[in-house]
Amino acid sequence: MDIALYQPDIPQNTGAILRLAACVNIDVHIVAPSGFDLSERALRRAGLDYIEHARIRRHDSFETFNSWRIDEKCRLILLTTRAETPYSALSYLPGDILLLGRESAGVPEDVHEAADASVRIPMARGRRSLNIVTAAAMVLGEGLRQTDGFPH
Length: 152
Hints:
This protein has 5 helices and 7 strands; from the N terminus they run E-H-E-H-E-H-E-E-E-H-E-H. With 152 residues, it is of the alpha/beta class. It has a single domain, classed as Alpha/beta knot. It is globular.
């Protein structure tokens, strides 16, 4: 199971997700362009000392990322407030990639359509959304639990 960030625009969130991924031993796919400097130095500053343990895969565009994941036979699971399916109701597979949209804008319609499944985190009425790091941790935790994917 991996995480993909679609055109991330907040470096601190990307750093926190890299730390999460390093701690549970998964890859992070970064789909360009991003809203900040993605150099090793900038990521090291955002990811603290965990960056050396993070496995980062960069993709020049959503099209190249999507072609790669289709070739690899990985399902794309989009986390979105627009989904009908609660994240806990989906049966996850070890090769799934959890896709998180831009903090400021989510993902465009063509990305929604490319996803194999879309899930949401149930929230109290009137609440807009969770921080993407919190959302990633919740859904990733469920996926790793279901697939026995936590490090042993």
